[in-house]
Every structure is written in C-alpha cells, then in structure tokens.
Design brief:
about 210 residues, globular
C-alpha cells in the first residue's frame, strides 16, 4: 500500500469539541445585597435619621467595599453568566458607589459645598436608570420594583440638590429606604429560589 493509499484509508482525526462551560452560581443575591445595604445607610442619612451622635457618614466605607467592589464583582460574574442586563446594572452601580466614595474623599466639603455637582451626578444616573427601568419590565416584578423606587429616589435627590431643598432630599431619603428594602427582598428571593429548598419567595412575572 502506497503512502497516499494509507492516508486515504485512515480516517481523519477531528479535534474534540470543547466541553461546555458550566455557568457559575447566581451573583445577583450578592449584588443586590451590596446595593441594598449601602443605599439604606445613605438614605438613612438623607432622611435625617442619623442625628445626634451619628455623623451620617457610615455609608462611606461600605460604599467602596460592599456597594462598590462587591457589586462590581457581581457585575463581572453576570457577564460570565451571559446576563447582559444584570452585568450592566451591577457594574454601573458598583462603579457609582466607588465613584461617590472617591469624590467625597477627594473633594473638600463635597456634599455640603457642591450640591449642584451631586445633582448632575444623580441626574446622569437617573437617565441611565430610566432605560434600565424600562428593560426591567421584562425581568420580574421584584426587579422592576427595585428600579422603580430607585428612579424616584434619584429624581427627588437630584431635584433636591439642584434646588438646595432639604425637604425634597429628605423625601428622597425615605424612598431610598424603600428601595433598599425592595433590593434586600429581591436578594433574599434570588438566593432562596436558587437554593431550591423549602423556602421560596415570589418575585412576580414580567410586566411585558
């Protein structure tokens, strides 16, 4: 048998198909929990609950470590899970908290002396949140509630900062507390439902 005949008689060796990459655990409960805690701490200050012996800056460290870094990591893991909506939301708001921490730490009297600057920041994120709110109608009611209450929080806060209205900012603080509670519930529901145990929490169907 010639070399060419031997080559034709030998079936071609095909490269093995790559094994499917398993999805990682759902990072949404972590991202939502980080967002909820930091939002709660900041909103408590905006609602004027932190008075007396409290300086109202308890959120700063957690803005960087939990609401910021942990949420940013959750966003990266959502990219790994091919969840573009979750990745965009967690990464953006993780960066928001880190940016807020850096801005307050680097600009003297950032919150009290530059209300319009903070107003522009909040306005920009309210614009971002508007289209995420629209897209959240395709996820479930729990996620929609988070983005709806967050939208109202950002609107009251940026108007309050532009108009130097402590009353509007305080209302934004109260709504922010509700936002945090919605995010905590959604975090718990996502964790419980992912576990597949006896505890199941409803999240509602998509609106559209």
């Amino acid at each position: 048998m010639s070399v060419s005949e031997e080559h034709e008689a030998t079936p071609a060796v095909q490269p093995a198909a790559p094994a499917p990459v398993a999805a990682i655990a759902d990072p949404a409960p972590l991202g939502l929990a980080g967002f909820a805690l930091t939002t709660f701490l900041l909103s408590a200050a905006n609602a004027h609950w932190t008075i007396g012996n409290s300086a109202g800056t308890a959120f700063l460290g957690y803005a960087f470590a939990y609401g910021g870094l942990a949420q940013l990591l959750a966003g990266m893991w959502e990219f790994r899970n091919r969840n573009v909506f979750g990745a965009t939301a967690f990464t953006t708001y993780g960066a928001f908290w880190i940016g807020l921490f850096v801005w307050i730490r680097s600009v003297p009297n950032a919150v009290t002396g530059t209300g319009h600057d903070l107003g522009w920041i909040l306005l920009g994120f309210a614009i971002f949140n508007t289209y995420m709110l629209i897209l959240s109608t395709q996820v479930n009611m729990a996620v929609f509630a988070v983005f709806l209450t967050l939208e109202l929080t950002e609107i009251f806060l940026f108007i309050g900062n532009f108009s130097s209205s402590a009353g509007l900012s305080q209302v934004g603080g109260y709504i922010g507390v509700i936002t945090a509670l919605c995010a905590w519930y959604t975090s718990m529901a996502a964790a419980a439902n992912f576990m597949g145990g006896k505890i199941r929490l409803p999240v509602g169907k998509p609106l559209i």
